[in-house]
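--- STAGE predict ---
source: upstream dedup step, 1 unique chain passed
mode: sequence only
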Amino acid sequence: MAKWTPKHEAPEPLEGPVVATITGGTILWFVLFLVQLPFYGWYDDHGHTWWLWTCLAGAGLGLIGVWYVRGRDAAIKRAAAADTGPSSTAAE
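--- STAGE serialize ---
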């Protein structure tokens, strides 16, 4: 079996308001869970309780995602600050 090799270079990753996007998605999953919670009996009667738990899992995983992207964002800012470093004080 031959090894697969890409035929073109991968595109650059898109940058944007990543923390806000993940936070918004997390809030949305949790709101969907809260909206469905009063109807738990109906979901249970019809075998659809997994819908509620999917929303709760999405919110929980979103919290992990928020923690991760905040750390990533801080690391990117630290790296950018280190690159621009103390070059202005060397001229004195």
